Request: fold
Amino acid sequence: MEAITVGARSVLVLGGARSGKSAYAQGLAEAAATERLYLATAEAGDSEMADRIARHRQARGDSWTTSEEPLDIVEALAAETRPGRVVLVDCLTLWVTNLMLSGRDVEAEVARLAQAIGSLAGPAVFVSNEVGLSVVPETRLGRDFRDVQGRANATVARAVAAVVFLAAGLPTLMKPAPRLVWRLG
Reply:
């Protein structure tokens, strides 16, 4: 696969469930810096999730520091980013879920994040699920979540320097977008 070099301090990695987005984002972060912080938004609400979190932490290995922050990632990013250290936020989808369930103003929190991205002291990679490519959710809560998450992804995508979309483990660079020249035949 041909490498594309993008000079970006902030990257959003989007994809569906099990698309390879987290592994891809981890690889980006590992290539970017030797000092790495994994900012986890997941909470171990049950034993299955606790096992999943433990497996992911073990798979990252000792070259990563982990910090768990389910709600206040803007503050965590302000405190944890610095030159020479990459922060990987995994994932914005769980963050939005946590915000919704806690009754916070999701759009205001996402706007705060988008505003903060440009002034982070070091590089950051964000992971998020693209939830709008599937069936229409059956419940009102599911449809509301899909809509809120879609708007959150669009807001963060505008704020970051680069966006990569993964499907079937294959990355596609979305931003910066290639320049299309269309000539009518």
The radius of gyration is 17 Å. Residues 10-175 form a domain with the Rossmann fold fold (CATH 3.40.50.300). The chain is about 40% helix and 20% strand. The chain has one domain: 10-175.
